[in-house]
Amino acid sequence: MNALHLAGPAASRAREGLSAVFFGGVVPTSHEEETLAEEIGRSLAQAGYQLLHGGYNGLMEAAARGAGGQGATVTAVTLIGKHDEWGAFNPHTTLSVHLPDPGARLNHYLENTDLIVAMGGGVGTLHELTAALYYATVIRPVPVCVAGPAALRLLAFLREERWLYEAPTRPLGFLATAESADAFRAHLATLDTAPIGGA
């Protein structure tokens, strides 16, 4: 299958309201990190966002649990050929999107979001975060919030080594950090809540 495949009760519904993408790994570094992911998901739902995530376990599942517990639509975005290998979606997923390759998956995330939240993870999460930073720098300044100690250490390294820096042609006003659930909620309150394409 080489085309977009949607599944779930909301598959035929057009995009409505606000969407947030959550990038996070399958192996949380601590219970506190997992709790923060759940609080982020809950806060997103309370602020009116639906959630897009990888669909599997770990931090993704924690964020989905938080969002789903507040009644938000939780969409899993996966690869057509990998779903059987990667296993069942977490139980908080209400809709799924199956795409042919990692590039299409990333494009789907980036083109269909009003906010990106990234936490710690493996090389897949690193790939997603760096793609989001590049996209927000040169394509569309979608807000990116880096949260939790692991992701904040990575961001500090990227800045220290000048992999990520601000310049007149590369503004970083889209980028924010959140060390805690309270800081994340405070950041959410500052965002423009007009969905992509206007109200």
Report on this model:
It is a single chain. This protein has 7 helices and 8 strands; from the N terminus they run ββαβαβαβαβαβαβα. The protein is α/β, with parallel strands linked by helices and 199 residues long. An 8-stranded mixed beta sheet has the order 1-5-4-3-2-6-7-8, sandwiched between helices. It is globular and about 45 Å long. It starts with a strand and ends in a 9-residue tail after the last helix. The N terminus is likely disordered.
Structural topology:
Layout: E1 5-7, E2 18-23, H1 31-46, E3 49-53, H2 59-68, E4 74-79, H3 83-86, E5 95-99, H4 102-111, E6 115-118, H5 123-138, E7 144-147, H6 149-160, E8 175-178, H7 181-190
Parallel strand pairs: 2-3, 2-6, 3-4, 4-5, 6-7, 7-8
Antiparallel strand pairs: 1-5
